[in-house]
What does this fold into?
Amino acid sequence: MRLAIEKLTLEILGERTFSPFDSKKLVDWAVTVMTLGYESENLVILAGLDFDTTEIREKYFWKSIEDLKIDTDKSDEEILEEYALLIAEKAVAGEISADHAFGQMRNIVSASGYDARYMAFYEIDEDLDCLRYNDAVLFNSELTLANQKEYILEELQLFYEMESLGIPVDERRKWYCKRCKKLTSPTLKTKYQLRKPFKYQTWCCGICGSEKHVIGSIHTVKRKIIKEFVGRNT
It folds into this structure.
């Protein structure tokens, strides 16, 4: 029961980092907490503030948090990190829809200042727009309008696994080289050829220099990253 209260509170704290935030959700939070068997004078007051100002609702929300002895001494970055993991966990468990989870992850992208950990969801959103208007993608070659729900759910699963394992961001963005069959951080190199453009720049394998690679947004590559990380740390 205590864990359920903490998760409900995390959801509210996470959504409070979004702009705009509807403070009526604080009232709904109080009602839900009370249905789970917790009660205090401040909770009762907050649960009845349907038509009051955000300032008043915030006042009784924080008083209720004190009553419940919930630790909220966290930065916005820490809150978003925990909230993103919770959203992914709930989506994978089927407790919320992939559509709702995707919407929340897009909000997290913006609220985090486009933190690299969440950028995959921004890239999927961009690719869905490209598919609707240009029938093409920029980042996710396996994504289609027909498979978008399954693809997003798998992305949430991969995000959850990577976050739970603590895989560093620089490792999550590695590419897979088709020549040397290794995961690598690509490097931008200048190359020359006997036709125009005679000089050009291209991303190459950081190990063997090959231009033949699969970018890190592809799910099969992310699975390789997870497998390699687990193998290296067990």
Remarks:
- The CA atoms of residues 204 and 211 lie 5 Å apart.
- The radius of gyration is 22 Å.
- The longest helix spans residues 148-165.
